[in-house]
Amino acid sequence: MRRFFSKLKPSSLIFTFVFSLFFLGISAHAASISVMMPLNPITDWPRFRQQLKTLKTAGVQGVTTDVWWGHFESSGDNRFDWQYYRHYARVIQESGLKWTPILSFHQCGGNIGDDCNIPLPQWVWGLGDPEDMVYRDQNGHANGEYIAPWFVGAYEQYAQAMASFGENFREFSSNIPKIYISMGPAGELRFPSYNAKAGWRYPEPGSLQAYSRIAVQNFRDQMRVKYTNNLAWLNSTWGTSLMSFDEITPPRDGENFFINGIRSTYGRDYMSWYQGTLLRHLAVMKKVANENLLPYLPVAIGAKISGVHWQYTSNRMPHAAEYATGYMEYDSFVQEFARQEMELTFTCLEMDDQPGHPNYSSPQGIVSEISTLANRYKVRINGENALPIFGYARAYENIRKNLSQFQYAGFTLLRLQNIVDSDGRETPDLNLFRDIVIRGQGFLDFPFPEPNYRDPLFLEIQKSI
């Protein structure tokens, strides 16, 4: 073998080394692989243990679990009950798998794929005027999946919950690599712009969610600050003739705002404020975690950005769905994750593009955009699939390619029941997941054609190794 390599030119040595890694299955970069657990509480622990054993055997390294606010603090303010989740953490630890909890301050139920009903604790709505705590769209629909970030009284509740969680789970610190913090509906840092209960249907762009009294006032206050309380300057910039800052309103022309209004100075100011609300929320929640959670559990903290992939390539209103969700541009989001030293999780790694009418969908385009920014700003990025995968090998291959190309730190598959049945037996999808993602992820992608398996050089390499 030494004589063989001594005959090769440097360029051939590079090829040989790279190909040897590929042939042996050695990964140049291997993402940590986890599986998302069921939304509802576990009731049959022996079967659950068998499911975990199957995951471990398949090569899965950890599991991710929603820790529901509506479960652990349902009885009243500061009345925490961690008994179930402590038993849960112990079972995971005994299985040999790592555990990533999600402090889920959102409700369970009402989103795609949800099969549960765990609302926010009922007592929460007595903390203030409920009108100030919900999101509200232009048509008056209220959304209480998550307390709207303009209601600052919620942060004290999050602080208490994080401190209590930290105190009660620090004994499991060696088995908890990171903790996710719910930042909005479905646990994602976004506004609830696409909600079927409010009449939304895919692939409509959705609705802006800042029409509550407190949200409108916050927008007005921010414009006062930006324009230094100079109404004449604001009118000149916006091309308006307002008589008072109290006459400022959010957009009132529905989808036309995404077609035309977004291009105006007013539209850019509005979207900067709308997106800025999410960025401030992220920063405050990390500060709360730093002060209340990390002293007990000094682990990585993460949050999720939603993969809003439809209307991405629309000629009429490009990116309208993202705008409604609060994503005017992603650079600021990823930079904020970098400033806060947080891990970022992004969804829809599995989906194929559907760029034509009416979807104008580009999940792979948006994955590339977010992932490139994360790599640029050195943010640890993790991935998920947006929807359950049922035997579609191409979806697993999309995941594998993204993990490898963009150096993902981890990937979590949604969800346990799609790859392991209730008795702990493998489903056909587990075979695909294991073969393509767990065993195949991280292989080097060649910048040249696939090797010719009859080529003498390949045959010699094969014999040598």
| Beta-strand residue fraction | 5-15%
* Count of extended strands: 10
**Average pLDDT:** 90
Structural class: alpha/beta
| Tally of separate helices | 18
Strand order of the largest sheet: 1-2-3-6-7-8-9-10
Shape: globular
Percent in helix = 40-55%
Note the gap between the termini.
Answer: 8 Å
Radius of gyration: 25 Å
| Low-confidence segments | 1-28, 442-465
What is the H/E order? HHEHEHHEHEEHEHHHHEHHEHEHEHHH
Largest sheet: 8 strands, parallel, barrel
Tell me the layout of helices and strands:
Layout: H1 2-6, H2 10-24, E1 32-36, H3 45-58, E2 62-68, H4 69-72, H5 83-95, E3 98-104, H6 130-133, E4 135-136, E5 142-143, H7 154-169, E6 178-181, H8 213-226, H9 231-238, H10 256-259, H11 265-292, E7 300-305, H12 320-325, H13 331-339, E8 343-346, H14 363-376, E9 381-384, H15 393-405, E10 410-413, H16 416-419, H17 428-438, H18 456-464
Parallel strand pairs: 1-2, 1-10, 2-3, 3-6, 6-7, 7-8, 8-9, 9-10
Antiparallel strand pairs: 4-5
Helix pairs in contact: 7-11, 15-17
